[in-house]
Amino acid sequence: MSELFDAVDALLASRATLPPPAERKRLRAAHGLTIDEVATALQVRRATVSGWESGKTEPRPPERDAYARLLDKLAELYPAAPADTATPTPDADAAVPATFTAAPAPAEAQTLSTGEASEAAVMTATENTQTPAPAAAAPAAVTRPARTTRPSSTSRRLGAKKAAPAGTPAGGTDPRFENGPLAVVDVEDGQVLAYCTGGLVLDVPAKSIPALVDWTLREAKLGAPKLSGPGKDADPLIVLTEAALERYGLPITLTEEEKHAGRIPEGHKVIKQLVRADWQLTKRGFGPWARIYRPATGSERACVQLCIPSWNALDTRHWGEAGQLPPAELARVLGVYASRVMTPRGSTAVTGLELMTALHPPTRASAPDADGKRHSEHNPGSLGKDAIDPMNWPPCEVPDGHPVLKDLPRFHVRGPAEKLFEEAYDWARPMTDAECTLRHLVGIDVNMAFAAGANGLPVGLGAATPVKAPAFDPKLPGSWLVDLSHVDLSRVKVGKEWVELDGSLLPSPFTWKGERPEGPAWYATPTVAYAQELGYEVRPIEAWVRYDNGRYLDGWYNRLRDAYLATMADLGVDADLSPEDFLAAMDGYKGRDPELAIVGSAIKATVKGGLGKLRERPRGEGWRPGEPWRALSRPTWRPDIRAAVISRTRINLHRKIVKHASFTGQYPIAVLSDCVVYAANGESPLDFLPYREGKPLPGGFKLGINPGLVKHEGTQDVLWGEEVREKFNAPELNLARYIKDGTVTDVDNGE
């Protein structure tokens, strides 16, 4: 009989009742317990407990019974707060739109009694407003909210938060922007609805685009606070679905001519409506990312940003299938991005550039003068409000066709002694006989490599000064003409010790193709400094240096790093996982929440695109070589900063490659940008990375999600590598380009 009782007890334990995920976290935090402490007590991994608290996974026996027991005891010590303890947002009931709707409660809350449901709502609101979001929350799928009417702003907010999945931005605490940074406007059953972040849905009374702009600025309470003291608040973003476009008289898709122009014609009826209502468009016109504004009066701004996915506003290369998502899901994706990075201002590249300016506004208010008045003045540490005169640019730093090069012969091709070639790696070599005996090719990829390259990097803030025969200063940003052909990679300093290496198996750190330089060439400061680090003397012939400099990109890096780490934690990839757990967590992480995976991809694209925009080329506009183009009028047109970041990123990678080679005798087969391929006998990076008792080689490659650490990019057979090189008759085919899935679509010509 006792065996039967034991079986019954086990059956009951397998269905032990657990509180909702948010309550699990509240109870743990109330007792001051860390996730690690709970994981240790229950003999499970940290990520497992994070999954239980986020609702991503549910515990199973025997851990479920022990976990339920822990939560029951904590619930006795820390009972949930009564419903009437919720603190209303200041001025929450003021200036509320007449009609609004909110998302329904989750399924589990709908089964509770009225009192229980009210208590659950308050607990969720308290969790969202008083404690940080769980680091590893994996949001549940969003369903289209039902529309219900609530008696007050506070009730609406609680209802919306209760229904919002974990990882969804809760909206700003600033009462001016209480409904979040953006809304996706859609039409359902003839009613225009605005889907906001946090599950909130507003009724939209506007019957035209001008009326929609007015409603957005006057009633919607959309926008976001400024990111820096002297900066400006973010303008509200309105995303128009296809149904909304049709409702407001706009084309669902652009014609080929309109796509090429990037806008609808000036004579379109909607543009005429805007003109009649005294609204203006920027020079970009009414395109996928239209900005509609009136000139600012004092501190008051009147500007709304539009995003039109069906006009390709959300490039699938960076936003995946975001443009195809239903309104609520799209609001969540863009809302998470807006809360962690900034409200999108255009493509991810444009937003990356705008983020630099938002964190370092060009001007600030001065101290009061004798009359007590303040004036606009230069903000130290920024790039200022004026672009560098095109004719003051160092010829070596500008791309072909720049006005400063207008006197060059038309078909003149500049070489390394005339042009700064700081680019990311694209290098490969044939495998050695010994490498061909190994079984696999394993690719590792540096996380957020270019962001890591920007961190702590001094860059010029203003124009450059020419110097003849300068003494090299590794702390001085600039471009240096110097001969580095004497640097021999077969004998270099690693730390303070000289080491012998096989230089023929290493890419040169001084050229993006990995070839040894043949004479004087222009380099950014980090490249020349690395030559010194390797133990070789450098004697620049001339230079363009920037005495006014600073770590302009530090804040930019920090915000994008934090955004990326928070998003990856939501996807179950924490920053403190062991190497084995990290590789396991990365396996299929995008499938845990495809919407948040889109956010992660967009964040990475923001890094690369923002840096690329620093050297934006002409984009049509009837431009001819030797003439200025539109981007040159921006203070953020700074090819020197882009070159410095790429230089440092490439050098950071080469330093790890050299460290790894000196310790293990292993050399890379191929390097492409931030991906490195090694031959190994196993399929995992752990089969060739020299970990000792869980600790990586100091200064070498380390597995992890932080920027600068590496993840597994892909593994293929050595036989695959030899076959594709033979098939395309290309002994130096860059296998890093195809290591992820093994698909080779065309001959690799290095372009």
Short description:
The chain has 751 residues and is of the alpha+beta class. It has an 8-stranded mixed β-sheet. A 5-stranded antiparallel β-sheet has the order 11-21-22-12-23.
Polypeptide structure, described:
The chain has 751 residues and is of the alpha+beta class. 33% of the residues lie in helices and 14% in strands. The protein contains 23 helices and 23 strands. The strands form 6 sheets. Strands 1-4-3-2-5-8-7-6 form an 8-stranded mixed β-sheet. The longest helix is centred in the C-terminal third of the chain and has 26 residues, at 639-664. The protein is globular, with a radius of gyration of 29 Å.
| Mass-distribution shape | globular
Provide the residue-averaged pLDDT.
Answer: 86
Report the uncertain regions: 83-164
Instruction: Please count the helical segments.
Output: 23
Per DSSP E runs of 2 or more residues, the count of β-strands stands at 23
Coarse structural class: alpha+beta
* Residues in helices, as a percent range: 25-40%
Largest sheet: 8 strands, mixed
